[in-house]
Amino acid sequence: MSFPLWYKAVCLSMVQIIGTKKCPETRKALRFCRERSLEHQFVDLAQRSLSDGEWESIFRHFSAEELIDENGAFYRKEGYAWRAFDAKEELMAHWQLLRTPVLRSKGACRVGCDTAFLLSHGAAS
Description:
This protein is α+β, with helices and mostly antiparallel strands. It has helices at residues 5-11, 24-35, 52-61, 64-67, 73-77, 87-93, 115-121, and strands spanning 15-19, 40-44, 102-105, 108-111. A 4-stranded mixed beta sheet has the order 2-1-3-4, sandwiched between helices.
C-alpha cells in the first residue's frame, strides 16, 4: 500500500522497538517490520539503557508491576519472587526485568509483539 507523502508526514510515524536481540518476541516484531517495509528504530537494551524520559513515557502507559517479566530468568535467578521490592526502581536499575518488546509511537505504547499496533503506527518506507 502506498501513501501520499503528506499522509506519511501527518498520519504515520516511526515505531520504536525496545528489547534485546535474544528475545524471540522482539525478533518477531523486527521481522514483521522488515517484511512489510515499516519504518522502525530498534533500541537494544544490551547495548544502551533507556533515558529517564523514555522510562517515564513507558510508565505513563503501564504500571511498573505490569512491566515486570515474572517468567524471565533474571527474575527467578535473583529471587524477586521471594522479596519485597519497588518495581519502578528495580526496572530502571535492571532492564533484564522488563517484558519485551516495548513498542512506542506518537505517545502510544504497547508491550509484546502487537502486529496491529505496528501496522497502524508504522510508516511504509
